[in-house]
């Protein structure tokens, strides 16, 4: 059975593994998965997830996990950027679950929480080359491209009115 719920901080490692598994596939990492995970962990690329409490729950946001029979299959989060603007972070769904509306379901849950928290707009950044499917998905649900709002020059910035 599929369920979405607030992540427990001790589940961060399992949530990271979901992200690393999907990234390994979409970025066509030639290394074995475990080697790839060790490399990216050494670079602290998901360091925000090392303290989910501080970076999400105490920063005007939420971090959710989607489970299939208690196994994490999807992650998604929002956090505060400005008073009425939040940022969508860490929306990753295991590839075998694509095309079943589960990513959309997670996104709608995050939109609902963002609205409850009083946010008027939501932003995100994604890699337009490797994550073109994600970019198309975001456009379909109403995101539009905006100028970059961080110093990550390899990312495409998008925004949507809530």
Give structural notes.
It is a single chain. This protein is of the alpha+beta class. Helices cover 35% and strands 30% of the residues. The protein is built from 5 helices and 7 strands. A 7-stranded mixed β-sheet has the order 1-2-3-4-5-7-6, with helices on both faces. α1 (12-26) packs across α2 (33-42). The chain is globular and about 40 Å long. 27% of the residues are buried. The model has no long low-confidence stretch (mean pLDDT 96).
Number of strands: 7
Kindly provide the radius of gyration, computed on alpha-carbon positions and rounded to a whole number of angstroms: 15 Å
Secondary structure tally, helices: 5
Sheet-strand content, in percent, reads 25-35%
In whole angstroms, the N-to-C terminal distance is: 29 Å
Helix content: 25-40%
Kindly report the average pLDDT value: 96
Low-confidence stretches: none
By secondary-structure content and strand pairing, the structural class works out as alpha+beta
Could you state the order of secondary-structure elements as H and E?
Answer: EHHHEEEHEHEE
Structure characteristics:
162 residues, single chain, 5 helices, 7-stranded mixed β-sheet, globular, alpha+beta
Compose a concise summary of this entry.
This protein has 162 residues and is α+β, with helices and mostly antiparallel strands. The protein has five helices and seven strands, in the order βαααβββαβαββ. It has helices at residues 12-26, 33-42, 52-57, 102-116, 132-141; strands spanning 2-6, 62-68, 71-82, 85-93, 121-126, 144-146, 156-161.
């Amino acid at each position: 059975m599929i369920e979405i719920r607030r992540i427990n901080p001790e589940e961060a490692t399992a949530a990271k593994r979901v992200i690393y598994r999907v990234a390994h596939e979409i970025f066509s990492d030639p290394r074995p998965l475990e080697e790839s995970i060790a490399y990216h962990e050494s670079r602290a690329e998901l360091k925000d997830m090392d303290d989910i409490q501080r970076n999400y729950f105490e920063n005007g946001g939420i971090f959710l996990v989607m489970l299939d029979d208690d196994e994490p299959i999807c992650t998604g989060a929002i956090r505060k950027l400005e008073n009425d603007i939040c940022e969508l972070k860490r929306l990753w769904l295991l590839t075998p679950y694509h095309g079943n509306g589960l990513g959309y379901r997670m996104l709608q849950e995050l939109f609902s929480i963002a609205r409850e928290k009083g946010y008027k707009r939501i932003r995100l950044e994604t890699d337009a080359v490797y994550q073109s499917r994600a970019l198309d998905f975001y456009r379909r649900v109403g995101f539009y491209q905006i100028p970059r709002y961080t110093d990550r020059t390899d990312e495409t910035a998008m925004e949507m009115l809530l």
